Amino acid sequence: MAATMKKTESLAGADLPGEGEKRGRKASKEVRRHQLIEATIDSLAKRGFSETTMADVADGAGLSRGIVNFHFESKEKLLVATLKHMADEYSAHWRAAYQKAGDDPARQIAMLVAADFDRSICNRRKLAAWCAFWGEAKSRPTYQELCGARDEAYQNVFVEICARLKTDSGYDYAAYETAAGLCAMLEGLWLRLMMGTEGMTRESAHQVAREYLACVFPKQFSRERSGGNAIA
Amino acid sequence: MAATMKKTESLAGADLPGEGEKRGRKASKEVRRHQLIEATIDSLAKRGFSETTMADVADGAGLSRGIVNFHFESKEKLLVATLKHMADEYSAHWRAAYQKAGDDPARQIAMLVAADFDRSICNRRKLAAWCAFWGEAKSRPTYQELCGARDEAYQNVFVEICARLKTDSGYDYAAYETAAGLCAMLEGLWLRLMMGTEGMTRESAHQVAREYLACVFPKQFSRERSGGNAIA
DNA sequence: CCTTATTGAATGAATGTTCAACAAATCAAG
DNA sequence: CTTGATTTGTTGAACATTCATTCAATAAGG
Fold first, then answer.
1. How many CB atoms lie within 10 A of CB B76?
2. How many angstroms is C1' of C5 away from CA of A32?
3. For residue B200, how many other CB atoms are within 10 A of its CB?
4. Taking CA atoms, which of A23, A146, A208, B197 is between 20 and 30 Å from A156?
5. Which region holds residue B174: left if phi is over 0, alpha if psi is between -120 and 50, else beta?
6. Nucleotide nearest residue B56, measured CA to C1'
7. What is the Cα–Cα distance from A22 to B84, expressed in whole angstroms?
8. H-helix segments, chain B
9. How many CB atoms neighbour CB B53 within 10 A?
């Protein structure tokens, strides 16, 4: 139908007409996969996991019904590919922030925390999609693995930084517990952002995390009333 | 079938033969509802939200297929009743702990945190069910409301306690951010417990939370290497 | 042409809901 | 207390719907 085609532009930023769209089959295949994954994230965010259908994904991408089974074998594989995509993106994002921070542990931890509240990662659409997967992770080993892998390396970096700050600045805390607590708090803040509880915004959530840093590492972070980075 | 009837006892602690089971229809109705809600939690924990079916719930309770639509009008209403049941139970649990704590704010916060890691509330089965609902909450206003109501009053109590400790003991932190951070951390720890990431146990999660308390309220809580309550 | 991508209708399986029949408890009358 | 009538609880099969998957036909690119 013509109506379906017209929808292509309005949803999911699906088609990228600016770039090399005519570069033959191979490129087109990757473009299509990415387009369908984005439509899947849209659907997960809008309808939730249990109501995300192949038809909805196809419609969201402005394509026909049968197309998803052509590029991905099954619905399950589409979902796994989507989760993998999000995990890779998340991982690349904090690793970039980590590298950019240089050698100072205080700067490292500040930038890692800030990265978690970056707009490109932390928005309603993606938070909702993450949460949709979390909700199914317990009963699906594949999801659990992909979600778990996300955290494992991430938390280890925090443990290491906390340990370094401890010996460098002579703190008394338990490094592992402090790092695990920070990671848990970051995830909990994501959860609250997604739920939209009590007018929590990305900024106020970030502020909560900064308050934690100021409390645990008073020698490195100062409390500030207004917004700002405040690496003392 | 006879096989189905025999299963009744093994699953969900369904039938309670000890109590007033013969007290007529009215009582039986409540018993059945509770039995079906427990079976629903079982199914959510075992299969996840998207694979929880009416048939599975009925089988889990050792009853026939059509029974759920008799006691609850629809699947949706069954799920809402289940979530409401869990929210009420959770609320009653922390309120009891709060009352039991008396007037000392340090004792209050310690008992509230401990209550969150109590076996009756914090076990794989219920954590998994909570998480299943969280995953669908964003796209279903009813769930969002019930989950949100859970947190609102809960967090307010923490804010109040933090404010009181601040003026009483002369701390410098921001009361709201500190309380919100603690609530977020508790939820994040639940999430990690449910995921089973990195061998996190109920005890180690509790320990992480205690480390946070020791950091924020050093005058009230002392750091301890081994387990224990340690209200200094 | 020939390969690849895409379409949309057909198919079959899964599942929520309905319902007529059945069982059991409660009550009324004898 | 017994018996019959009525309400209440329960069953399992039938029904209708939704949805993932398949596939023959078609369009597009090389």
1. 11
2. 11
3. 17
4. A208
5. beta
6. C15
7. 54
8. 2-10, 24-47, 54-61, 67-71, 75-100, 105-116, 124-137, 141-169, 175-195, 202-216
9. 13
Distance B47 CA to D2 C1' (A): 51
Token pair belonging to A210: 């900064």
Q: Strand pairing partners for A231?
A: A221
Of residues B134, B212, B215, nearest to A135 (C-beta): B134
Q: How many Cβ atoms sit within 10 Å of the Cβ of residue A56? A: 17
CA distance B21 to chain A (A): 34
DSSP B197: G
B-chain CB neighbours of A148 within 8 Å are 195-198
Pair of tokens at residue A83: 């989760």
Asked whether the beta carbons of residue B181 and residue A208 sit closer than 8 angstroms, the reply is: yes
Look up residue B84 and give its two tokens: 């409401």
Cβ neighbourhood burial of A172 (10 Å; 0-12, 13-18, 19+): exposed
pLDDT digits over B1-47, tens only? 333 333 333 334 333 333 333 344 566 888 999 999 999 999 999 99
